[in-house]
Structures are given as C-alpha cells and as structure tokens.
Amino acid sequence: MRLAEIKKVTQLSGHSGAVYALENSFEENKFFSGGGDRIVAEWDLAQQENGQMLSQIPEIIYSLKIIPQQKILLAGQSAGGIHVIDLVTRKEIRLLKYHGAGVFDLDFTFTHNLLFSIGGDGTFSISRLDDFSLIKTIKLAAEKLRSISIHPGQNEMSIGCGDGSICIFELPSLQMKKRWRAHQEKFSVNAVKFSPDGNFLLSGSRDAHLNIFDVKNDYHLVTSIPAHNYAIYSIVFSPDKKYFATASRDKTVKIWDAENFEILVRLDKDKYEGHLNSVNKLLWRNDFLISGSDDRSIIAWQINS
Q: What does the alpha-carbon distance between residue 85 and residue 73 come to, in Å, rounded to a whole number?
C-alpha cells in the first residue's frame, strides 16, 4: 500500500512552551493542544491561524481527553491534578486530585461508565465517568505510568509502565489479566495502542523499538522493529485504519502500513520541513495528521491515500 500524497498544510506556533498533548474537538476541523506554557489552546484547521486560549492551567499540561457526551475536556497536569473544563461555558468546573505526580494519560469507556488516569507516581486510578467519584487507585510501579489504550471490544485495556512492562486489565472487572516485560527492563513504555480491529497491541518505548503483540495469542510478540533512533512517544491510527504513525524524540514522524507493519514515509526536517526537536504527541483527524513538538509548534500534514 502506498501514500499518494503528503502535504504540509500549516505550522502553528502559538504556544510558548513544548507541546505535550493533542486532542480532538466535537466541532468540525477543530482540535485542542496543551503543554509547557500551561495553556489549553483551541485550533481551527479551516482558518489555520493562531489558536484561542481555552484555559490557563497552573501547571504543565501532559494530557488532554474530550468526553463528547458531556461536552467536557479533561486536562491532566504535572502536579497530579485533572482539570475539568466545560466546553459550552468554556470554564473550569472541577479539579480532580487522584495522583501525587504528573497525569500522563487519560481515557474512558462510556460503555462501563469508567474514567481512567495514570500518573508519574506509578498509580492507576479508576473513577465513575458520570460524576468523577473515585472508585479505587492501584499502585502498579515505582516508575511513571505513561500510556493507556482500551480494546475496541471494550473488554480489556492496556497500560504502559516505566519499568518496561505492559499491564492488561479486564473490563469492567478491573482484574489484572496479564503483565509482562514488553521492552528492555527500566526502559519506559511510553505508548500503547490497540489496532482498530483489536487483533494487535502496538507499543513504543524509550528503547526506540516498536513492538507488535498478538492479542488473541496471549499477547505473543509478533515482531520488534527498531523504528526510531530515540524514544517513541506516541502511536496513532488513521481514521480509515489503513495506516498508523509513530512520533519520536529523534524529531521525526513515521507513517506505517497497518496491514504489514512496513514503513512508508519518514517526515523529517530536511525533506518534509518537519520539527526541529522531539515530537511528543500525534493526532490523526480526518485527512490530517497533527504533530506537537518540543520546538513549541504544531504541524498539520494532509495525508491522501
């Protein structure tokens, strides 16, 4: 499978700090970003101009998650707090404090009415999605927990841990089903992502490898690819499910064939006018692949298959 065209559409430079978080909006062409300048910004790809400030957070923003059913945006920050922002009134309505250190990822299952958050203190917290009441907190590691992915079947979820392991929890029971060392010991698993068909779990680590696990075969390792020169921070699939992309500290974004896991293109500074520094987060919205970087900018690439 080949990509017909890749076009850099715009480079947005409204942030004054590194961009760590990107998230969809329920409005057409819009998305949110957050990072080192403690600002949650809203962008419109149709206008391609400086974003609007949605909220000023008192700490560095590491994660964003929209709950479309409630028109709420959650912002996880470096001190362990989760800010709840009402997207209708555009005001913060609550501050949740489930962790003692940075909240690196957030996710939820509407099916089971559960919200998940993971922290730099090695804790995994579960709360009710409708009222955010805390159900329980589980200590998984001494190191940071970095990434969450929920299986498309809503029957289990994965968590990438700072010790190089991956944990699988059954849903909705929250019983741990499996834990194994997925990457080099003490090399943080920074990104986990189930494939859209649920057959594979992809993981990216500080060891720069992209690992593919067979979900139906007890997460047997299918292949381990030396995908980047430095740590992998983000993995996203395209909406048409044909491709996925990885982002790395090596300043590049790579696009892969989701069927055979072969690399298709490397988006770098020299050939594609890519980022100057570490690429921390990816978001694939319609035909646009969006990347956020330590260089304080956001790039939107138009991907035509």
A: 5
Q: What is the pLDDT of residue 305?
A: 67
Kindly report the pTM of this predicted structure.
0.95
CA distances for 184 relative to 69, 141, 188, 207, angstroms: 39, 15, 8, 7
Distance CA 291, CA 304 (A): 17
Give the max Cα distance, the chain: 49
For residues 118 and 104, is the Cβ–Cβ distance under 8 A? yes
Q: In sequence order, what are the beta bridge partners of 167?
A: 159, 179
Peptide bond into 172 cis (omega under 30): yes
Token reading at 221: 């390792």
Per DSSP, 133 falls in state: -
The span from the CA of 243 to the CA of 257, in Å, is 5
- Which two tokens mark 300? 């939107």
* pLDDT tens digits for range 226-249: 999 999 999 999 999 999 999 999
- Rounded-to-5 percentages of helix, strand, coil across the chain: 5, 55, 40
